[in-house]
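The freezer alarm interrupted the setup, so I double-checked each line after restarting. Inputs confirmed:
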Amino acid sequence: MMAIIELCDLVYTYPGVSKPSIDGVSLTIEKGEFVLITGPSGCGKTSLCRTFNGLIPHFYQGELKGQVTVAGQNVTGKQTFDMAKHVGLVFQNPENQLFALSVEKDVAFGLENLGMSREEMRKRVDWALNLAGIYDLRERSPHEVSGGQQQRIAIASVLAMQPEIIVLDEPTSFLDPLSAEKIFDVIYKLNQEQGITVVLVEHRLDLTAKYTNHLIVMDKGKICLEGNPRDILCNEETSRIGVGIPKATLLYKKLKTNGFSVNKQTPLSSDELADQLLEALNK
Amino acid sequence: MSFFDGLKFRKVSSPIHNLDPRIKFIYVIAIFIIAIVFPQMLPLIILFLIQLPFVVLAKIKKQWIRSLRGAAFFAGFIFIINILTTFFYNDFTLTALNVENALAMTMRFVVLFESFSIFFLTTSSDHLGLAFEQSHVPYEFAFAFTTAVRFVPVLAEEAQTIMDAQKARGLELEKGNLLKRIRNYIPILIPLIVSAIRRSLELAEAMESRAWGAVKKRTNLYLLRLHKGDYILLGITILLMVVAIYVSFFVSIPLISDLLNPSVL
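Predicted 3D structure, all chains:
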């Protein structure tokens, strides 16, 4: 295994603010991992994402202390457009990250910026559109498709740049649960089939906890808990911070405190819990 | 607003829609110049008529007529102002010539509006942005243009949301005199501007993340190429210009009022 993102004692303060938004974070993410970051609003998740491709400190300025190494590059010494080839960022609001008047053109935007030849560009755009499952939409205008489709366009457009890492900052907070699930399917497929390292910031652990074995819980600019979600989501600390623990896990915890134990690993989805319950009932 | 409706693009495929926007623009400019050069009624009517086949070919009759109807108010305004000024200027008399001149002024506006509305009805803003880029307009301007077009519906929707929210809090927009009514819109405008600024920041962030400014000479997914139709339109444009120049120098144009009045001939 090889570390692809390494943060070392990171402290960052936005300009004009006295309290640091990231307060002493050290973190290692391996190549090919699916990492889930969660925590209450304003805990520094978004700021952390911004350090991965150098938006912090280049775009936001402010004061940054510590080391950020991503894909072997020292981020503070690189321009954001250099990092864009390695790290793709997908933001919360799909509407504000699509600029062009056709889907296809939007997906090509990054490649055009890199000065790629038309033939290569065409190949990569079609590839990315197919992976995101929106090839049929390619000639539509981004503002006339649904929010879920818009977010998939945004994913395709960073995908086209073939980054090693995709960072998604609450990509589903503007979407309904069904569209959200579709987005997570696409992301998981990218991680499994293309081997892209995924860093996903999400509140919806109900839908996402099952994908990962590396969960990070943040609070007040610090990493509070880190590890396997099956351990962390049972932890009392997690509920105190205010993390959206999956319903299945909550139910399992309640059953467990009332003496019902199946002596299995903590379930993360209703499917897993249902299996355990069925097994116990049939005994 | 029907006036702006006429300038709104709808996705259709037709021989006119597929023309290169650059050539179409040259054509519009040519019509523009010719319409300005001739103050007489007859050539303006001809200019109006020769554009009708474009409307039919582009299958935009309905929208086009609607846009003309929207322009009718301005046309009427131009006509009345012209008639009134000549009427007062000539000591309260009007001749057939005065009326014809006023009509010609109105016709000139109609011709200009006609050609612009054909242009905008048959050219997608995407195509237009592409034309900017490939006519060596700096990319920043072309980008600003397409982004502005892209965000018009988004901002319109947002304005509506803000209006609804403020109305729900008891803001009465349609109350008071004109000055008061304008002031009523301040609680709409401020949140709209603030959110637009915030939006632009997010947009800039997304652009940065997609390698904005990585290389000096960026490439483009699409390439505009001239096709047969473009050469035909270019030919028509040149022909029009040549005829117009010839006529303006060597032919005296008869007045419609004279043609209608056989006693003069």
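Quick read of the result. Chain B touches chain A through 33 residues (CB under 8 Å).
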